[in-house]
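User: As part of a screening pipeline, I want to sanity-check one entry by hand. Below is the sequence and the SMILES for adenosine-5'-triphosphate. Please return the complex as structure tokens so I can compare it with the automated output.
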Amino acid sequence: MATQMITPLPTVTSAPPRLDLIVESRALVKTYVTGDGARDVPALRGVDFAVQRGEMVAIMGPSGCGKTTLLNCLAGIDAFDGGDVLIDGRSIARMDDAELTRYRARSMGFVFQSFNLLPVLTAVENVEFPLLLAGMPPTEARNQARAALAAVDLADREGHRPARLSGGQQQRVAVARAIVATPAIVWADEPTGNLDSASSGALMALLRDLNQTRGQTFLIVTHSREVGLLCDRIVHMRDGLVLGEERPRAGV
Ligand SMILES: Nc1ncnc2c1ncn2[C@@H]1O[C@H](COP(=O)(O)OP(=O)(O)OP(=O)(O)O)[C@@H](O)[C@H]1O
Ligand SMILES: [Mg+2]
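Assistant: Here is the complex for your manual check:
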């Protein structure tokens, strides 16, 4: 692999919250306790990490280094064992479940590594689902879902159930579902993992456009250097720690 310029990150101290940060982790620790006699897995070993509002950040690192775990802890999907996560300057350790659920539903969109599409729903029904949950009238929800599917180039597949879609098409439905409600933060775990380079480029162009026109923040876990290079910042992880970062677009 080519030599990379990686700048070490300063350690985040117990400073007061900064308003320009949309999400921040401080000395975040997560250990999976297996309970079956196998050794516990220290998945995050003190992660200091911060994302500015409107930033597009890639998280890269070898398989098993803790990327999905970090995303899940930052988004309040997974509990953690030490440290803290601040969203909009507020500690999620201090939010109750109802508050966190509301926050997630209103402000976050997710593209899961395993897509998590509902198998009994068609593509358009999967995409409109979060809008209906949020109480949007069905006709409006259907129109927005159709527009989101068209944006990921799947207008002609809206009536297909996931089993009748390719892996890359399912992935794009998952992206459409994540962006349809214009959430402030979109968490995307390998959103281009099943796409060829042309579709991957088109998807990244769409995300960048949403980022610039709507000011949405994107956190993108990726194994693809090309995808990383299209982001404002690449954060490198290894063995449950953030090693450093690169700013590929500096001077762009
Ligand atoms: N539910 C779990 N129970 C026990 N260990 C787990 C669990 N989930 C993840 N792990 C372990 O925690 C570590 C970090 O896993 P994680 O899924 O965050 O990696 P990752 O960086 O996303 O990898 P990949 O690139 O393969 O998706 C791995 O060693 C993994 O085996
Ligand atoms: Mg993962």
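Points to compare against the pipeline: The longest helix spans residues 197-214. The chain has a mean pLDDT of 90.
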